[in-house]
Amino acid sequence: MRDIDDRGLLYITENSNSFEYQAFARALGTQPVGIRDVGGEHLRLDPNVVFDVDLRATSSLRKLKGLLARRGTGCRIFMVDPKARIAVSNAESLGADAILEPRCGAEAIHQAIRQHHGIVHAVDVTRSIDAGISALDGGFRSLVRDAVFDTEGMESASGQIIDAIDSAGVDHWMATVRGYHVGTFQHCMLVTATASSFARRLGMRRGDVIKVTAAALVHDIGKSAVPVEILDKNGPLTPEEAQTMRSHPIIGHDYLARRSRIAADALRSVRSHHEYLDGSGYPDGLRGDEIDDITRLVTISDIYAALVERRAYKAPKRPEDAIAVLEALAGAGKLEPALVRAFARITLHKQAA
Ligand SMILES: [Fe+2]
Ligand SMILES: [Fe+2]
């Protein structure tokens, strides 16, 4: 998860030696970097940047134009006298997110950064959730009509979700989903966020994180063939209803195998996300090594998300209680202990952060 703090704050000044710049840098919680010393490596992590330089100097301007050509989501703040028209227009041409007076104070800078990220996050989060919901909705409808599944649409939604969770944090993303969506769609989106951020924080390559995210997004697509009365039933299912419910992994897998271009391992997780390592799961009663890594990851995320979900008939569990359930399942030989430990570490550390 990238948040405002771990992207860092870069304070670019005319020179790094003056007492005044150093004092202000201390108030900002960073160090000054002179404009002559600044290079691409300073901007690699897409930091928030405060520019305290003379924007009328052509050499500085040229240098900054080169350095700032690529736009990330870091906030760009320029400390410029609002009456200096040329400097203001140069700041704007460099992509200023905020223009503040030179003696504005550190708190005004931090406030501008928080505001910038609040706006960026809100837009990213909402857009990515909309993209995910529309990919899901399209997929659920296509299955019922046995129409072609929009694989590219789902992968693009997955990419947007990964980026939004990266910038806004998984807690905020999941809270937004809970606020606007219910039932099966809420469940699928929460599994997606959980699996995606888990994969990301395990250090997987982006291609694999997309695969995991996409697999999680569609893991329950077979539920579109299950009647709503069963899906949203307010209480325990009868044996017949449970039988119908348990058909969803095969229905989803068979549909996607025929009508989508989803990667084979993501497809396997659609079929096998209710399997347990001890062979007690369904639909195939797979054991141990027969269950691959992506599926293991989706299974843990699926169970966790179901436990922390808000349903009409049950209160959501707290993350630590949901993890205790996962640990018990690992202890019983159903889930991989090392993976559950990693999940607990990542999830609870995140809660404490
Ligand atoms: Fe499922
Ligand atoms: Fe599920």
Automatic annotation (TrEMBL):
Signal sequence segment: none
Pfam families: HD_5
Protein name: HDIG domain-containing protein
One GO MF term: phosphoric diester hydrolase activity
Organism annotation: Devosia lucknowensis
Stored InterPro entries: HD/PDEase_dom, HD_GYP_dom, HDIG_dom
HD-GYP domain boundaries: 162-353
